[in-house]
Amino acid sequence: MTQLEITRSAVRRPFGRRRKSCPFSGPNAPKIDYKDTKLLGRFTSERGKIVPSRISAVSAKKQRELSTAIKRARFLALMPYVDM
Amino acid sequence: MRLYESVLIARQDISTSQVEALVDEFSAIITNGGGSIKKKEYWGLRSLAYRIKKNRKGHYVMLNIESDNATLAEYERIMGLNEDILRFMNIRIEEVSEEPSIMMQAKSERSERGSRYNNADNAGAEKTSEEA
Fold first, then answer.
1. Which residues in chain A (11-70) have CB-CB distances under 8 A to chain B?
2. Which of A3, A34, B8, B52 could join B88 via S-S bond, C-beta 3.0 to 4.6 A?
3. pTM of the model
């Protein structure tokens, strides 16, 4: 639901905000680790889905890394597959 | 010889000393196979994000291992047979980090966790509204 709203408002604005840079690149960027559930939780929706990189602005390379980390955390029951 | 990170989840009903014994048993497989245990962390009895074999909680243990693949395969086989182990995951790593993992850091900060959690939630909410 929230995602729908995001895309719609983005369409309405003719000149979008400057694209945010990747949160995992730069000098003091956090390291992606499957054990860091607090960090990974920021890149999942309330239902536990992985947030697409076009919304979170994560670079393609880091998004791949992030998705494996989230999947590992899910396997170890550190994060939910589905959260109601 | 390669470096591996192994996380295992033991049943909630067993005691911490029994977990110790289990870990020692598994470590023995590695050391007998010519490998070594580089690091050992007990993350405590954590609640699982979903039920595994009707358990809601589990004892988490992380081991950093140096071994060859035949020994690791044996280690995995024995763990798979053990009924006290709900789940395990072994992944290859490039190096063993010296400092304790994020789980141990989170555990020592548990006293101030309530407030921190709220902050994190608020930060998340702010983020989504900013994007909208």
1. 33, 35-36, 38, 41-42, 55
2. B8
3. 0.75
- Shared domain for B104 and B79, answered yes or no, is no
Per the structure, the complete domain to which residue B10 belongs is given by 2-98
Superfamily covering domain A32-84? Ribosomal protein S18 (4.10.640.10)
Q: Searching chain A, which residue's CA lies closest to the CA of residue B52? A: A77
Strand partners, B2: B67
pLDDT digits (tens, 9 = 90+) for B76-100: 999 999 999 999 999 999 988 877 7
Which residues touch B74 (CB under 8 Å, ≥6 apart)?
Answer: B29, B33
For residue B64, what are the contacts with CB-CB under 8 A and spacing of at least 6? Answer: B3, B4, B5, B6, B37, B38, B39, B40, B93, B96
- CA nearest to A82 within chain B: B50
For residue A55, the chain B residues in CB contact (below 8 A) are: 131
B90 beta partners: B6
- Tens-digit pLDDT profile for residues A25-63: 888 888 899 999 999 999 999 999 999 999 999 999 999
Helix (H) or strand (E) holding B42: strand B36-52
